[in-house]
Amino acid sequence: MQPYELSLTAAAQEIRARRMSPVELVDSVLDRIEQTEPHLRAYVTVTAEHARRSARRAERELAAGHAAGPLHGIPMGLKDMIDVAGVATTASSRVRESHRARTDSTVAARLTAAGAALLGKTHTHEFAYGLTTPQTRNAWDPGRVAGGSSGGSAVAVAAGAATFALGTDTGGSIRVPAALNGVVGLKPTYDLVPRHGVTSLSWSLDHVGPLARTVQDIAPVLAVLTGHAAGETGDADLTGLRVGVPANYYFDHVDPDVEAAVRQAIARLEALGAHLVDVEIPMTRYIQAVQWGLMVPEATAYHERTLRSVPERYAADVRILLEAGELLPAGDYLRAQRARTLMRRSWLEMLEQVDVIAAPTVPTTAAQADRPTLSWPDGTVESVSDAYVRLCAPADITGVPALSLPVGHDRAGMPIGMQLMGRPLDEAVLLRAGRALERTQPPRLLAPVPGSADAMISH
């Protein structure tokens, strides 16, 4: 097994036991990036020398007996919305071609202090305003979308081109690409992870969170990002855990392979001791209107100056959305905020009856890159982006934490994701349940990147 094949947890154990050095690990992942980038284009910028300097520093510190923790010497990718001093933050847009961050974002500073080594900045759908990341290819099938907007981060982790990564989530942008590429992604509770130094899409919906290969890998990253222990994930006994199974909304217009895999995963939670409870998802008819009613005007307000001065530098799909935001009345925005308050209150009442809610992350696996819409058996036609945001948006609107983890593959071999959602600040409960479920599954494969052999990832 090559070092790049190791999960974060396994790599940290090897480094701590002195069986592998941070330099070996970083060099291996950089070599992997060289191998995968021509096929996948996960990175905007690769900061190879930056990563090697960090690895050498970590090696010296470890030799001197100064271990900073489980991220010491671990290579990471950061979504190109997250500032690192002296490195470009382009947001994958021509609008930001000449931008260089003067200071680190809070999350980058915390990860650096913990000893993590920056490999580079990963691609996003321009300014995180989309769900496909069109410049990046799916790690399992380059002919399919990567998902967005944190597509580069998810693809890098899935391909072994990063041991972990950070993304942002406004309408599903961590969880969607995590599900489509077969990795784990956590959208934490709103405002739990600092957003200082992170380019905004919609300030009342934006979240920053980690992507990794296993649920177990998420906990140490979350602990560094928040400054608080994320809880133990090793207990496989879920006796007494109340798992809400949606009776409406989350299984409507869902691909049969996705529904079957998610329901099988829910059955495994029950076999581990969890108690299943049917729940009714509240205010579902308002979800799409509230999501767009909040996000569109906030995004337009953020981009007001550059939209007027350099509109031609935006991609057409993003420019159209930004221009549409200028037409939205203030009253509609205020009504969306009021509806969000009512929706959050209803969700908190529902979450008094259960500990977690289990549901599909997205209704279908990765679409073909040239396919703009999905058609359902009842004749409903929906855009790919609307389909991907549909099941993720409620957790962004209400601010509750949501964890996406792989639960199988469809008949074409594409990954299927399930999300666990819980009460605010109950990330530890989601991680415990996710880890218990993860242990019931076979070892996870690295994505079979063209031109490379499949690699086994152990938990």
Automatic annotation (TrEMBL):
Annotated signal sequence range: none
InterPro entries noted in UniProt: Amidase, Amidase_CS, Amidase_dom, AS_sf
Domain Amidase: 24-431
Origin superkingdom: Bacteria
Gene3D superfamilies: Amidase signature (AS) domain
The protein's name: Amidase
